[in-house]
Amino acid sequence: MLQTLKNAFKNKEIRTKILITLALLFAYRLGCWIPLPGLNTEVAWQGISMIGGQDNTLWTLLSAIGGQALQQGALLAIGISPYINASIIVQLLTVAIPYLEKQSKLGEDGKRRIANITRFVTLGLAIAQAVGIVISWYNVFDTETGMYAVKAIFGGVDRAWTATIMGVILVAGAMFTMWLGELITELGVGNGMSLLIFVGIIASAGLALVAQIQAIVTSTGDDQLRLIWVLIIFFVALLFIFLFIIWIDLAERKIPVSYAKQVKGRKQYGGQSTHIPIKVNANGVLPIIFSTALLTFPQVIFQLILGGRQEGGFFDFYQGWMKWVGTSSWIYFVLMGLLILFFSYFYNQIQFKPDEVARNLQQYGGTLTGIRPGKPTADYLGRVSKRLTLFGAIFLAIIAIVPSLIFQQVPLFNNPADPFSKNLVNAFTATGMLIAVSVALELQKQLESLIMMKHYKGFLK
User: Fold this and answer.
1) Residue 90 and residue 104 in contact, taking contact as beta carbons nearer than 8 Å
2) CA distance linking residue 299 with residue 129, whole number of Å
3) Three-state DSSP class for 295?
4) For 317, phi and psi rounded to 5 degrees?
5) What average pLDDT does this structure show over 294-299?
């Protein structure tokens, strides 16, 4: 990776693309630290955390993806999450709605129309999410300081006007984040949306690591020794998870293909052997994102109804829901595993179409070794794809569930008096690492492709 970056900086055009990407990412991170006007961030985050306790997956996930922007109460607190959800929704509806399916096959014009639809869906989801967040903040009250999370700085004593302005700013911030991602994709290097998620995850992990080191420095005696052991054990486990992710992410099944010789005019075509690569984890991290979004959706509804209140019969029902279906319950892990399996097969049906691959092979004179062209080839590719999807789903389930279970059972990481270790585990999630590794590998491949293309251009000149 370092050698690839070094080679990329030697080319002026690629260097300019990298610098534009870094500048836009810096603008995004700056917006993740500028606080909203009229928000007491400490009271807001403490109140929200108390609603769901340690198992509030929704807020933890949104904060981790946004690089702690939600926890900081920043202008870009919503960040990229509405666009992610909108992309998932539109992609799933492409299979169900004939109009969207038709547009997906019309080339660039169809992609532009789908992109516009995704933007409108993003706006709708950003409004809904902003309303939920502002309502959750609005009624949070700190009894120790006697302060509300939302302060009346607009319209005298009317806090509702301040909350309305906050909601508008949050929606504008979400759309600005989407624009930044599209701008990075157009002018910079790599997929802009993926890079924004990557930067948010890395920032969250870095902040948690700095907080852990500061806790080690300021503590003494047995507490300091325990925090040091937490850091050592955590990084050893992290190294194994990291290597496991890279090993599976690069694994693929190569199906050999032979092309028959064809004579057209005076030229001879074909007569070559190649292969069809099918990745073990072709679905990436999407099944985990789908499953987490579905399991945390009830939290969104409950928190919209609660509006930050922490009393009453409905709040008791919500607490019971979090107890039985929260991230520490066995029901949550069972549902997560089943949903990952379901979404892995569902998304594979959208991505990989054996009939189309078999038809293209037959059209260009390609055959699989020992397999007849046509339907037998399609059936064979379908069987291979389903088997690899099963292994990929098992891998994703292990990544999403096993590390969380282990860290929950280790007393070092579950000391109520030590919030730093818990934050470290929440920041360095296996899911976040999977996203970060996938984005980094994809970025490296794109840089290598750009370098190779520039070399070919120079040779032709």
Assistant:
1) no
2) 12
3) helix
4) -65, -40
5) 73
**Could you tell me the pLDDT band of residue 417, with boundaries at 50, 70 and 90?**
low
Question: 3-class SS at 306?
Answer: helix
* In contact, 448 and 257? CB cutoff 8 Å: no
Q: What is the DSSP string of 375-421?
A: HHHHHHHHHHHHHHHHHHHHHHHHHHHHHHHHHHH-GGG--TT-HHH
- What residues form DSSP beta bridges with 387? none
Distance CA 202, CA 195 (A): 10
Task: Reduce the secondary structure of 37-97 to three states and give it as a string.
Answer: CCECHHHHHHHHHHHHHHHCHHHHHHHHHCCCHHHHCECCCCCCHHHHHHHHHHHHHHHHC
Q: E strands along 413-454, which residues?
A: none
* H/E run at residue 323: helix 313-325
Cβ neighbours around 384 below 10 Å, total: 17
Whole-angstrom distance, CA of residue 237 vs CA of residue 222: 22
The conformation of residue 106, written as its DSSP 8-state character, comes to S
Structure tokens at 120: 């409108």
Q: By CB neighbour count within 10 A (0-12 exposed, 13-18 middle, 19+ buried), where does 216 fall?
A: middle
Q: Which residues have C-beta within 8 Å of that of residue 227, sequence separation ≥ 6?
A: 212, 215, 216, 219, 418, 420, 421
Nearest to 287 by CA among 327, 344, 352, 332: 344
Cite the DSSP H helix spans in 81-143: 81-96, 98-104, 108-138
Q: Specify the DSSP element, H or E, that contains 244.
A: helix 221-250
Supply 276's token pair.
Answer: 């069809």
Q: In the chain, pLDDT over 70 holds for what percent of residues?
A: 79
pLDDT tens readout for residues 233-292? 878 877 888 888 888 888 888 888 877 666 665 666 555 777 788 888 887 777 877 787
Give the helix ranges, DSSP H, for 326-374: 330-351, 354-363
Q: Give Cα 438 to chain centroid, integer Å.
A: 10
Tens of pLDDT, residues 57-104: 556 666 667 777 877 788 888 888 888 888 878 877 887 788 887 887
Q: Where are the beta strands (DSSP E) in 235-330?
A: 252-259, 262-264, 267-269, 273-279
CA distances from residue 241 to 20, 84, 194, 245 in whole angstroms, order as listed: 32, 25, 21, 6
DSSP assignment string, 186-228: HHSSS-HHHHHHHHHHHHHHHHHHHHHHHHHHH--HHHHHHHH
Closest alpha carbon to 203 in 104, 72, 88: 72
